[in-house]
Amino acid sequence: MLHKEPPIYLDTETNGLAWPSLAKVVVAKDTADSDNPKYLMCMLDNAENIKKVEDFIRGRVVIGWNTCFDMSMLCAAGVDID
């Protein structure tokens, strides 16, 4: 499947001590403008940051090392992405 926009590169970091982990950090890179990539780094600890993540990656292809884990962490934090 071909996509018009470049993918989002995503990684989540957790404290790893509990499922779902309480301390979640999202690091994402958008390369749509290869000369000026956009980055998003935030904790998923409030509604404003959750909205930022949703807006940053909604509708885009997500690439990561373990995207199943990453998407599970995002969903557990309340991020709503189709």
Short description:
This protein is α+β, with helices and mostly antiparallel strands.
Describe the structure.
- The chain is α+β, with helices and mostly antiparallel strands.
- 26% of the residues lie in helices and 27% in strands.
- The chain contains 2 helices and 4 strands; from the N terminus they run E-E-E-H-E-H.
- A hairpin with a 7-residue loop joins strand 2 and strand 3.
Helices, strands, pairings?
Blueprint: E1 8-14, E2 24-30, E3 38-43, H1 47-57, E4 62-63, H2 67-76
Parallel strand pairs: 1-4
Antiparallel strand pairs: 1-2, 2-3
Number of helices: 2
Structural class: alpha+beta
Shape: globular
Low confidence ranges: none
CA-CA gap between termini: 17 Å
Average of per-residue pLDDT values? 82
User: What share of residues are in beta strands?
Assistant: 25-35%
User: Mind describing the biggest β-sheet?
Assistant: 4 strands, mixed
Strand order of the largest sheet: 3-2-1-4
Total strand segments: 4
**Helicity range of the residues?**
25-40%
Q: From the alpha-carbon coordinates, what is the Rg to the nearest angstrom?
A: 13 Å
Q: H/E element string?
A: EEEHEH
